[in-house]
């Protein structure tokens, strides 16, 4: 009887001790994992993608080169957009701003689909919609020792802003962006005409002159210059002996050339930029005996968020919401 009682006590002890041992081991292991993932020095840690976009879970992306349409998860698509549109070396808050802007632009395109791309919602041509690159192609352009770090940084920028879009009066905005504003962004009316968008105003940003995209030069012989314009305007004539054969007549609020007289033509600065392949419509002209030199400031159309400006603001301590509110007037950042 006494032996049975002892066996009973041992059995009771085992029943209580084993769960305690395993619980302690599991808790220790879980705590260690949490510390590893939350450690600020662990740049490889990825934030999970858990957002349910409901009707916008996937989009139809037109690959222009192959003329094929791919149905792709929205945030997975944004990984490719952010990695194609903004350098991974930029500040995390700038990358987050780019993620929200790109998501907003995408949703705007889906909601306002004009059938331009057939059954697709958006294309991967940066001159038409937004640039996009696959993970494999992106990796091939990065140094091997930077690939995982860069990709994880971009994925985290997208995942940490999941569901966030920019709205004006309750609707997604047409969230234009460009590389470098040259210090001041442009109102769309001075680029594309029309009535413009009230949330896209001309604003200034300091620090953009620190980036390589800020300034560039384009030099043409006088014959090259004439040939390029004649391809578009066959009636073009110019006498370089005249003092005012090329004269800027008006500037925009963003300091870009609004109208310019070239020989017998009066053109917009935007058209001259297009004809000559300049980086921006913000330019100065110098005429020598044989050549015409354009000193260009900024890169892109200048409307909406400047990407280098966003990085400059982030370096000064602005978060992604500050950056967005700087470039888009009277907007709200909301959860879809």
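-> sequence recovered:
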């Amino acid at each position: 009887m006494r032996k049975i009682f002892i066996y009973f006590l041992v059995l009771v002890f085992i029943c209580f001790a084993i769960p305690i041992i395993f619980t302690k081991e599991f808790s220790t292991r879980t705590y260690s994992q949490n510390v590893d993932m939350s450690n600020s020095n662990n740049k490889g840690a990825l934030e999970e993608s858990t957002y349910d976009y409901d009707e916008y879970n996937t989009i139809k992306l037109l690959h222009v080169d192959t003329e094929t349409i791919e149905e792709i998860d929205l945030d997975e698509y944004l990984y490719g957009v952010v990695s194609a549109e903004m350098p991974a070396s930029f500040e995390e808050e700038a990358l987050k701003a780019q993620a929200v802007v790109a998501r907003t632009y995408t949703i705007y395109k889906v909601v306002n689909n004009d059938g331009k791309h057939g059954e697709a919602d958006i294309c991967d041509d940066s001159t038409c919609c937004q640039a996009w690159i696959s993970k494999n192609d992106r990796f091939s352009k990065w140094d091997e020792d930077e690939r995982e770090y860069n990709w994880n940084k971009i994925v985290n920028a997208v995942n940490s802003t999941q569901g966030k879009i920019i709205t004006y009066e309750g609707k997604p905005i047409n969230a234009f962006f460009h590389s470098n504003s040259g210090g001041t962004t442009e109102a769309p009316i001075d680029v594309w005409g029309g009535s413009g968008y009230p949330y896209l105003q001309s604003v200034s940003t300091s620090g953009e002159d620190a980036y390589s995209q800020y300034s560039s030069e384009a030099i043409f012989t006088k014959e090259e210059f004439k040939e390029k314009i004649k391809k578009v305007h066959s009636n073009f004539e110019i006498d370089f002996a005249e003092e005012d054969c090329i004269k800027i007549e008006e500037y925009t609020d963003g300091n870009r050339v609004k109208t310019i007289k070239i020989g017998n033509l009066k053109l917009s600065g935007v058209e001259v930029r297009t004809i000559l392949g300049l980086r921006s419509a913000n330019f100065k002209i110098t005429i020598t005996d044989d050549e015409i030199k354009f000193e260009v400031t900024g890169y892109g159309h200048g409307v909406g968020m400047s990407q280098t400006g966003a990085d400059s603001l982030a370096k000064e301590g602005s978060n992604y919401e500050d950056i967005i509110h700087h470039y888009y007037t009277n907007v709200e950042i909301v959860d879809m």
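Residues 270 and 281 are 5 Å apart (CA to CA).
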